[in-house]
Amino acid sequence: MRVSTxxxxxxxxxxxxTALPVIEKRENTTSSEALGLxxxxxxxxxxxxxxxxxxxxxxxxxTGGTIAGSSASNTDTTGxxxxxxxxxxxxxAVPELLGIANVVGSQISNIGSQDxxxxxxxxxxxxxxEILCSEGSExxxxxxxxxxxxxxETAYFMDATVNCQKPVILVGAMRPSTAxxxxxxxxxxxxxxxxxxxxxxxxxAMVVLNDRIAAAAYVVKSNANTLExxxxxxxxxLGMFLSSKPVFYYPxxxxxxxxxxxxSNITELPLVDVLYGHQxxxxxxxxxxxxxxxxxxxxxxxxxxxxxTPSMPDIDALIAKGFPVVASSKVxxxxxxxxxxxxxxxxxxxxxxxxxxxxxxxxxASGYTLDEIRTSFEGILYDYLY
Length: 386
Ligand code: SIN
What we know:
Layout lengths: L2 H16 L12 H4 L10 E4 L8 E8 L22 H6 L9 E10 L6 H16 L7 E5 L5 H11 L6 E4 L12 H12 L10 E4 L2 E4 L4 E2 L8 E2 L7 E4 L2 E4 L23 E5 L7 H8 L4 E6 L10 H9 L4 E5 L16 E2 L5 H13 L4 H16 L1
Parallel strand pairs: 2-3, 2-4, 4-5, 5-6, 12-13, 13-14, 14-15
Antiparallel strand pairs: 1-3, 6-7, 7-10, 8-9, 10-11
The protein binds succinic acid (SIN).
The site of succinic acid has 11 residues, from loops.
């Protein structure tokens, strides 16, 4: 059979599966106008679908990352540029989305997530509260497209700060949009489907990649290169997608160790440094962090958060002055367990170092005392143990 005939046969066979969805009852108003989002300050709406009153409403915050990445070669899965494609192009690449929800896209940033920062995450948390949680809001869910490198941090932050039962879904991709078998379009379709689904309510923020749904509070990136990367090793997934429809393993549940913070009066997040534990770790980096203006320190300690003998006098002196030093674990899985006598450094429990950093920033910005910070990290696990 000639190649052109084969191609015709394939396109006929595939026609039904690849046909664009029929979108009915769309009105002339855009979803952004219909939802009253056009006037929200700081919400940079760059895509808005026509409205269909019978569909749920989903807002997408686009921040960049590999899902918006591009490369000259379709075989590149490294060395590409992250954060190139805009939110309108991301949505238009997945027209099936418009059969699922009215979609409003806001370009918050277009960066690799290594450059995500306190200013942007705080702005997103405030905007998310305004859009999702204000009285009379008709927005059903929020999707944040994000680079995978620091997704677990932003996911943790949104989980801790946006709490009105409605879902916040973080989504990314491991392959750029130009790659053969790019994973972004399917991930985005699943994220919007999840955000629009009433079954996603009361579960906190979630991360969606590679057909899996994970709780933001526990998920970590576990592989630098492959699609199978987001895991909650101890706690497991909340659910998965079958034919792009979410299937939950459990009824709605929130993480046991979840702490929530009100960001409405927070205008900036204090500097908190993470120091990496290793053999011969001493006081030098601790002193450098304090001298450079850190308001708190997280040490990614060895094992279950153990600290080296030469570092302990400095750690204890800081704690005695009311300066928070939190010990998490560079192992990333398992708990740093509170001491019975609540002395010396603060133990992070199940919070990994980067999530501990965000929790400490939020606690400091909320005006917590050292004791309150200790309770926010140790309290629940302490009550389990003692
Ligand atoms: C990034 O985190 O922005 C780049 C890597 C990725 O998105 O997978």
